[in-house]
Amino acid sequence: EVQLVESGGGLVQPGGSLRLSCVVSGFTFTTYWMSWVRQPPGKGLEWVANIKHDESERYYVDSVEGRFTISRDNAQNSLYLQINSLRAEDTAVYYCARHFGREMTAVTAITYWGQGSLVTVSS
Amino acid sequence: DIQMTQSPSSLSASVGDRVTITCRASQGISTWLAWYQQKPEKPPKSLIYAASSLQSGIPSRFSGSGSGTDFTLTINNLQPEDFATYYCQQYKSYPLTFGAGTKVEIK
User: Could you tell me if A27 lies within 8 Å of chain B, comparing CB atoms?
Assistant: First the structure.
């Protein structure tokens, strides 16, 4: 069974930092693209960042470029999102997601989602 | 950025109805389109990829069609568990973008 379990969310002051983690199981982590997708309270979905299975490519939405860093530890079956310089508009549930297809050269649709981790930015 | 426009933003339907949701891309995306379902307080669930291919385990009453800029998600014989919000997403180019969602409510 494919599982993605996020952790690391919480209440943070504006300008603060946080690292989200996603531990996966049930599939060969080293062969899949992975993404972070967020959802502000009561709003729609926003793709944040993704990383290729071999870490050779990473992409970000403009609003987080330079503040967020996606990484992965293939030996630990873990995906990370380092979030710096947090703003109120970063308040959201952050989902870890796995893309479709093994060792794809380009990104594909998302197939599996974690349960999400809430990040609240407030003073 | 490619903008994804869904319509309607919400609709009311009855169990057994056929429901159609439209998604329009601001530029051509071939069939690089996915559909997701989300229920309140739950993570999204993947329904369709490549515009018309069902993810594993998704009932055949769900279907997708389209290519280029215009896409459709159809739910035949709407079931009680289908009342949810549906999102389309393009993965043709970065940033990956979602539509604003279509909420399917019980009439």
Answer: no
Token readout for A61 is 């939405």
- Inter-chain residue contact A111 with B100, CB threshold 8 Å: no
- Cα torsion B98, A63, A108, A34: sign: negative
Express each pLDDT in B3-21 by its tens digit.
999 999 999 999 999 999 9
Q: A30 by DSSP, 3-state: which?
A: helix
Copy the structure tokens of residue B42: 């739950």
Contact assignment for A45 to B46 by CB distance below 8 Å? no
- Specify the amino acid at residue A40: P
Measured between alpha carbons, how far is B35 from B39 in angstroms, rounded to an integer?
14
Tell whether A117 lies on the interface with B, counting CB pairs under 8 A. no
**What are the tokens at A69?**
């860093």
CA distance A97 to A81: 12
- CA triplet B22, B23, B26: central angle to 5 degrees? 145
Q: What is the DSSP string of B13-54?
A: E-TT--EEEEEEESS--TT-EEEEEE-TTS--EEEEETTTEE
Q: Which residue has the higher pLDDT, A105 or A40?
A: A40
- Alpha carbon distance B64, B51 (integer Å): 6
Nearest-Å Rg of the Cα atoms of chain A is 14
* B98 contact A CB<8A: yes
